[in-house]
Amino acid sequence: MASGSGWGAGGRCQGITKTLIDTPAASFFFLAGLSLRHELRFPRWLGWSGIVFSVLFVVGAFRNITHLVQIVADINNALLPLWMMVLGAALIGYSRLAPVPKLKSRFQADSPIY
């Protein structure tokens, strides 16, 4: 078996492994986008862009299995650092805009114990 094909070094098994590693990261971006959409302190475009980026991330994760998605993987590789910087800046910046109301603790003396 040639070293660049099949289940050998650099072959399909390695491609499947990289795909399995990329999908939890895409799940994180999807869940972050969903939660940002429902948080009033953050703009809605930030949540939607996280969801779109996660879909691109999942499609691009199959780059090692089929060459048909290579252009999506290239776009994803270009946008990944940008998305991480925008997400980090938004989490730092927008978290200071509006104070979060203090929630009453479930374990205060006047609440029943379950």
Any overview of this molecule?
The protein is an all-alpha fold and 114 residues long. It contains three helices and no strands. The chain has helices at 12-38, 44-61, 70-93. Helix 1 runs antiparallel to helix 2 and helix 2 packs antiparallel against helix 3. The protein is elongated and about 50 Å long. The N and C termini lie far apart (63 Å). Residues 1-9 have low confidence and may be disordered.
Task: Please give a handful of descriptors for the protein shown.
elongated, 61% helix, 114 residues, disordered N terminus, mainly alpha
* Number of H- or I-type helical stretches: 3
Structural class of the helices, strands and pairings? mainly alpha
CA-based gyration radius: 20 Å
The number of strands is 0
- The average pLDDT is 76
Which geometry do the CA atoms define?
elongated
Distance from N terminus to C terminus (CA atoms, Å) equals 63 Å
The helix content is 55-70%
How do the helices and strands follow one another from N- to C-terminus?
HHH
Task: Write a brief caption for the model.
This protein is mainly α and 114 residues long.
SSE topology sketch:
Blueprint: H1 12-38, H2 44-61, H3 70-93
Helix pairs in contact: 1-2, 2-3
